[in-house]
Write a structure and sequence with these properties.
Dehydroquinate synthase-like, alpha domain; 14 helices; 2 domains; Rossmann fold; single chain; 380 residues; 11% strand; alpha/beta
Length: 380
């Protein structure tokens, strides 16, 4: 078993979920609220988590997580936590469940409204260490939320905002690649492209953090070598392990900030209809943003090409579009059902998003409008 201590305590290996009881004992907790979704419950993964915790523990389970977690779900899960007398939170699932669990742990001890803690609204210093312990158990390889300091939640008014603080990082991340063996090909592809985007955007961020940049390049290289393999054969344990590490490394680099891809995908993720998958949005948008950022990337595109195993003169945007095509992902926002008349509102929300400040190239509203319109048409 591999113990990694970087940002938080990380148990990483096949079968790591069996360490849940030990990690709960170290935290001194015994009655957690499990935050998950119905798909995870139906797939039988909660039973594996309960086995890892031991048969004598009592759990409450909230399985109402949505694809883009919202404020109402945070309140519902927080209320269940209090009603059941829970002392901790265990998040099981993809990024949506992990983000929802972070927000739940916040509101257990911090007063409403949730909005006041949003980063873009000056909420970072309002988030304190006074929170119940959180253990994150990812079942996809893409989000990196298990080591991330942010939760992305859609408020009741449709804004998808980031709640960011070092205190939002889970106390423990249990990364067991075996929990991803049953992930369908499409979700393998979409979540994998999320990891790719995290590694690329954080590497391109203008903030200075050489250790994070080295981690981002390593994660990108792993994803490029193993994502297609995991997509073709979901039972490939080596590919699943490498993709979970790529995802974890993408999350480790969030300290540098993201960029316009996430500014746009966060805005679109707040739409009530159509419901849009975050990783798929990133895959569709990334080529356009790579073209936009080229003039401000310096020698970083050469480093990205090397990490991705591309030729020195390769077009990064074309390489990403080709990878998405190989994975059967959509090529445009219009193909995902995004209506063109939502662009003005999406531009406004992207300009307000916390990720915009760390894009490699400064953005104006007109730049965002052009990027949204280009992504509506797509690359293929």
């Amino acid at each position: 078993m591999s113990l990694i201590t970087y940002l938080t305590r990380i148990q990483f290996d096949h079968g790591a979920v069996g360490l849940l009881r030990e990690e709960m004992d170290l935290l001194g907790v015994s009655r957690p609220l499990i935050v998950t979704d119905k798909g995870i419950v139906n797939a039988g993964l909660i039973e594996k988590v309960l086995e890892g915790a031991g048969g004598d523990r009592k759990f409450a389970i909230y399985d109402g997580t949505l694809e883009n977690p919202d404020e109402a779900s945070v309140i519902d899960a927080r209320n269940l936590f209090q009603q059941e007398g829970c002392d901790s939170v265990v998040a099981v699932g993809g990024g949506s469940s992990l983000d929802l669990a972070k927000a739940v742990s916040l509101l257990v001890t911090h007063s409403e409204p949730l909005e006041q803690y949003a980063a873009i609204l000056g909420g970072i210093p309002k988030i304190t260490a006074k929170k119940p312990p959180l253990i994150a158990i990812p079942t996809t390889s893409g989000t990196g939320s298990e080591v991330g300091r942010a939760a992305l939640i859609t408020l009741n008014d449709g804004r998808k905002l980031g709640f960011i603080s070092p205190y939002m990082i889970p106390e423990v991340a249990i990364c067991d690649p075996d929990l991803t063996l049953g992930l369908p090909p499409y979700l393998t592809a979409a979540t994998g492209m999320d990891a790719v985007t995290h590694c690329i955007e954080t590497f391109l961020s203008p903030r200075e953090n050489p250790p994070a940049e080295a981690i981002a390049l390593d994660g990108l290289g792993r994803a490029m070598r193993f994502l297609r393999r995991a997509f073709r054969d979901g039972r490939d344990r080596e590919a699943r392990k490498e993709m979970m590490m790529a995802s974890l490394e993408g999350g480790m680099t969030f300290q540098k900030g993201l960029g316009a891809v996430h500014g746009m995908s966060h805005a679109l993720g707040g739409l009530k209809s159509p419901r849009l998958h975050h990783g798929t949005l990133n895959a569709v948008i990334l080529p356009s943003v790579l073209r936009f950022n080229h003039s401000h990337a310096g020698d970083k595109y050469a480093a990205l090409r090397a990490a991705m195993g591309l030729a020195e003169n390769a077009d990064l945007a074309e390489a990403i579009a080709r990878l998405s095509a190989d994975l059967g992902l959509p090529s445009s926002l219009s193909q995902m059902g995004v209506p063109e008349d939502c662009i003005p509102l999406m531009v406004e929300r992207a300009m307000e998003d916390h990720s915009t400040a760390t894009n490699a190239r400064p953005l104006s509203a007109s730049d965002y409008e052009a990027l949204f319109r280009e992504a509506m048409e797509g690359d293929r």
